[in-house]
Amino acid sequence: MKNEVNEMVKKIQETNAEVQGLQRQIDIMGQKKLNQIVQIASDNLEFEEIYHTSFLHDEDAEQEGEPFLDQKGNVLRGIKVIVMIEDSSDGDSEEEWEHHKEVFLIEDGTFRTFDTIYRTFECPDCDVMHKSILREMAEEDYDSEYRSELIISNIAWRLHDRAEELEMRRSRLAERVEKLNMLMAS
Question: How many domains does the chain divide into?
Answer without folding.
Answer: 2
